[in-house]
Write a structure and sequence with these properties.
By secondary structure, this protein is α/β, with parallel strands linked by helices. The chain has 2 domains: 130 residues, D-Maltodextrin-Binding Protein, domain 2 (3-Layer(aba) Sandwich), CATH 3.40.190; 112 residues, 3-Layer(aba) Sandwich (D-Maltodextrin-Binding Protein, domain 2), CATH 3.40.190.10. It contains 11 helices and 12 strands. The strands form 2 sheets. Strands 1, 2, 3, 4, 5, 6, 7, 8, 9 and 12 form a 10-stranded mixed beta sheet that branches. The chain has a two-stranded antiparallel sheet with strand order 10-11. The longest helix has 17 residues. The chain is globular and about 55 Å long.
Amino acid sequence: MKFKLLSVLAFALLPLVAQAETLRLSVTTSFDNSGLADVLRPEIKKDLDIELELLVVGTGQALKLGEAGDVDAVLVHARAAEEAFVAAGHATHRREIMYNDFVIVGPSQDPAGIAKANSAAQALQMIDTADAAFVSRGDDSGTHKMELALWEGAGIATHTLGAPYRSVGAGMGAALNTASGLDAYILTDRPTWLTFGNKGNLVMLFSGDPVLFNPYSLLPVNPARHSHVKVEAVARLEDWLAGPRGKEVIEGYTHEGEPLFVHSAVAE
């Protein structure tokens, strides 16, 4: 009887012993919309016994969650904001993991003629000159930060664009849906565009300018600010993402044979 009771107790406790450790990460909507998160999570759980709990928001909000200690690490794509985050002591360091690029999509008839542009700045100037509709995420995300930097680089203040410029305050998928409905131009990351299902009349019109480079980095939250963060588990996750298994999984994620992310972490 005692043996049976011990067996029952051992069986009841087994799920507690085998339960994976949970890590909370704030990540960008473009990272999630691309589909890569769905590929990475099961592989990370299998290899590291770590369950990723993702808080999917824009880069600005993702960094605020890290600053507040609501997550163990942040994965975003806005280098200047990331470096400021580290400099302010909110993260121990910045580790670049991978990259892709931004592209400009718009109506197939291309009323502004940006397919012939020689640079991203010229493409935006042509959109402005044509008074063509443009959808902005307007959500302080990495994509939104890049878009504003591109307008500035083109010498155009967004407040001068008037009604054709629509700021929607939404994630990448929702913003693309709006652009599709309005036949408008929009800046997006390549993976989200390629995997987006509601393209409507939109097509990719401009890409390839080096300023459209889009790196993603991991920022471990500083335990000196928030002692509860899971430092050891984040370090294991970072090593995995930066190592050969991370490279294999990240670059193995493709769309119609085209890799959507390029692994760029340097082994330490």
